[in-house]
Amino acid sequence: MNWIRLYIRLAGASFRAQMQYKFNFAFSSLMAFGMFGIEFLTVGTVIYKFGGVGGWGVYEVGYLFALMMFNRALYRMFASEINGFEKYLVEGLLDQLLLRPVPVLLVLMTRQFRPMLGELFLGGTILTLSLQQLDAAGQIVWYTALAKSFAAILSGAIFTFSFGVLTATVGFWTHRIDDLRRITDDATTNACYYPLTIYPGWMRMMLLTVLPMGFTSYVPALHIIRGEIGVWVLPATLLFALLLLMGALRFWRFGIAHYQSTGT
């Protein structure tokens, strides 16, 4: 409980510091909403024109897109500095954090904390629209699907955070991790905006085993909006996410113990 209170106080201080520039915060939120909104409208128009992609309709793809928007927003909200961990290793900034009587990971999670309002609002809009249309088509019951979607978003956010921690930890030995992050975060996130059925078999296997980001959106959606898997998939996915998180945290502690300063 002490760590939770400390996190709230540090995150609050970070947020108040950023809100000193209210126009910048509002403008960046608006730009994020517009940028990702245009991206979805472009892809959605093409999918609607051709009647679907990989056997999935436009509102089913919209549901996947919304889940990934929430996952991405929550990760950037609570762990943006983990996503940019390379500068701490290369510039020697990590040494300063190690001198503090607070876990390094906790400090990183409180830095640059800010609500990703643009992404959250866009994700909520697309999620609501998609569920309404699927409910009107008789494919789902919207309030049941909405409740299950919260479980999918929770497990997806844990998956995304765990991969961020794993990628950051590799940097204790390689120092440069931006190229690796583009694979484990950017590439896999972009891939999971769409159904895995559009990819070749080897890529589907990779997104379900080696880099199992397919569990952030595609696998839960098979049950929630398509009914192809039993309800057991939701607790199983959450359990998988928690196990991955435990492994990521253990690997992080191992990396911290073997960290060698840059000398700066």
Automatic annotation (TrEMBL):
Species classification? Bacteria, Bacillati, Bacillota, Bacilli, Bacillales
* Protein name per UniProt: ABC-2 type transport system permease protein
Keyword field: Membrane, Transmembrane, Transmembrane helix
Q: Which residues cross the membrane?
A: 21-41, 47-70, 116-134, 140-173, 231-252
This protein's record includes keyword Nucleotide-binding: no
